[in-house]
Specification:
This protein is mainly alpha-helical. About 85% of the residues lie in helices and about 0% in strands. The protein is flat.
Amino acid sequence: MKQLKQIQQELDALRKQGKDAVFTEQRKIEKRILFLEMCRLYLETKPREEFIRKSIESLDYIIATLENRFDQWASHRTGGNAELRREYNSLCEIPKFKQQRKTLKFLLD
């Protein structure tokens, strides 16, 4: 599991690196810094490893359930499959759940 100190060291390194980077690199660094700041704030709450694992399992179940319900939801709508998928994902906030899962998995590695 990642430690608060590891996250802080990576944040410090990225902040130093960001000052000398070109614009496109700065954008990537800024996104990474935002991600790490979110991780740092979460780690400050001192979550237990088993809690993080259960949260990941719960998110996996939620995502799978929502994705399985898409066909039923789409059967009452008209439009292209990709368009309907985007609308459904936005409506059910699936990207938010996937981002949460990604963050928790990062913290466990």
